[in-house]
Design brief:
Blueprint: E1 3-11, E2 14-22, E3 25-29, E4 32-34, H1 41-53, E5 55-67, E6 71-82, H2 90-93, E7 101-108, H3 120-133
Parallel strand pairs: 1-6
Antiparallel strand pairs: 1-2, 1-4, 2-3, 2-7, 5-6
């Protein structure tokens, strides 16, 4: 099973997600991807945020680790520079490869519970912590 590193980036009560449409299913994931050989989950998270979102991030703290299609490690992160939505990773270059579409977007944290977010337990914890402690 593969390890995946993902970023939870919050700004102005909104969280960065990737809207996926694949095989007529619409769902959302937090930006991130598989850890490559010789990489840590933190390094993969930083690389994937640049590839998928077009931004350079700083990992602030671990958020949660879950077993979902392998090991997934989530980190709270902040944007240091770049323009959100300008990612040029292979996901965007090969849109006709049967993997569906990828659309970076900001979603209001209050709406997380209404979306098909994978994995849902991460979205639920984020919603709970944001409501209780003001993560943003």
């Amino acid at each position: 099973m593969r390890t995946r590193g993902s970023a939870i980036i919050i700004q102005h009560d909104k969280v960065a997600v990737i809207k996926r449409v694949r095989n007529s299913e619409v769902y959302y994931v937090f930006p991130g991807g598989g850890v490559e050989q010789g990489e840590t989950p933190e390094e993969a998270t930083i690389r994937e945020a640049y590839e998928e979102l077009g931004v350079v991030i700083s990992v602030i703290a671990p958020f949660i680790e879950v077993a979902y299609n392998g090991r997934q490690v989530y980190f709270l992160a902040q944007i240091l520079k770049g323009e959100f939505g300008t990612g040029e990773g292979e996901e965007f270059q090969n849109s006709g490869n049967g993997r569906g579409t990828y659309e970076p977007m900001w979603v209001d944290i209050e709406l997380l519970s209404t979306l098909n977010i994978k994995p849902q337990e991460v979205a639920g914890l984020l919603h709970k912590k944001a409501a209780g402690s003001g993560l943003n």
